[in-house]
Design a protein that fits this description.
Layout lengths: L7 H19 L34 H36 L2 H16 L2 H12 L3 H28 L2 H8 L4 H37 L11 H8 L8 H29 L7
Helix pairs in contact: 1-2, 1-9, 2-5, 2-7, 2-9, 3-5, 4-5, 5-7, 6-7, 7-8, 7-9, 8-9
């Protein structure tokens, strides 16, 4: 039997994520300059001293991009973790509720999902004040409804299977059934959705920072760098183009990876198989 070829988008995803992750991890112990170092000339072009040039404050763009990429990954991963834990817990709880309560909770989740994620994160961030932690929590809460709804749907599918009915009739407790039968059978599908939520979190963080509601200065933020560079985009376009390119690389890489995982699951059998 012929071996199935690895899709090209998986290679693209690996390359994009490798480049951005390498920059992010390297920034933990080295950058050409401090991300808040303003000793360079204003709006300098690429040179040996500053390979991507400087911004309007005299900061080295390469250093700022590396630090900004690290923060984007940190906030994206943290927010996704909060969204996953909260969403999975809520989704499983709703799945176990009586039918009337399940319907009510599902309708409420649908309303939250219909509410724009960025707008919900903005409302939470504005209410709690501007900080890195607020950005993480607000994005995580805003994205949790998406995971909760999917978890509830997948759990309900498992609850219709014969092995689930057998476990219930054998006297196995609900908590044990959840960890033994439900979670192992829905985790693969959930992982694809969680990967997509990570990309959404990266975009939300950049958008919040662009609007002045995200990571406060002097912390590096790709969204804030784009906002600061918009006034000089015609004379010094790299300041706006490069942070946008980094965001696109991360989100595209994650989405392509999620697509590759989804294709793998589609050829590997359905839930509970």
């Amino acid at each position: 039997m012929a071996r199935k070829k690895t899709p090209i988008r998986l290679y693209i995803a690996v390359v994009l994520l490798f480049i951005t992750l390498t920059a992010a991890l390297t920034s933990f112990f080295w950058t050409p300059y401090r991300s808040d170092d303003t000793s360079g000339g204003r709006l300098e072009g690429p040179s040996a001293a500053h390979i991507f040039g400087t911004d309007r404050l005299g900061r080295d763009l390469a250093s700022y991009l590396m630090a900004g990429t690290r923060i984007a990954y940190s906030i994206g991963l943290s927010a996704t973790l909060i969204a996953a834990v909260l969403g999975i817990a809520i989704g499983l709880l709703v799945a176990w509720l009586p039918q009337w309560a399940d319907n009510a909770a599902s309708s409420f989740l649908d309303v939250l999902i219909a509410f724009p994620t960025l707008l919900l994160a903005m409302l939470i961030g504005a209410a709690q004040g501007r900080s890195t932690w607020t950005a993480v929590v607000s994005i995580g809460i805003a994205c949790s409804a998406i995971i909760a709804r999917l978890t509830r749907i997948l759990a309900k599918q498992i609850m219709s299977k014969q092995f689930f009915v057998s476990a219930r009739t054998s006297g196995t407790g609900n908590l044990a059934i959840t960890f033994i039968h439900i979670l192992p059978n829905i985790w693969q599908v959930l992982s694809v959705n969680i990967a997509v939520v990570f990309g959404v979190s990266i975009l939300a963080e950049a958008s919040l920072s662009y609007l002045g509601l995200g990571v406060p200065p002097p912390n590096a933020s790709l969204g804030r760098l784009m906002q600061e560079a918009q006034a000089t985009v015609l004379t010094a376009p790299l300041g706006a183009v490069l942070p946008g390119l980094v965001i696109v690389m991360i989100v595209t890489g994650v989405n392509l990876l999620a697509d590759a995982i989804r294709d793998k699951l589609d050829t590997g059998g359905g839930i509970g198989q």
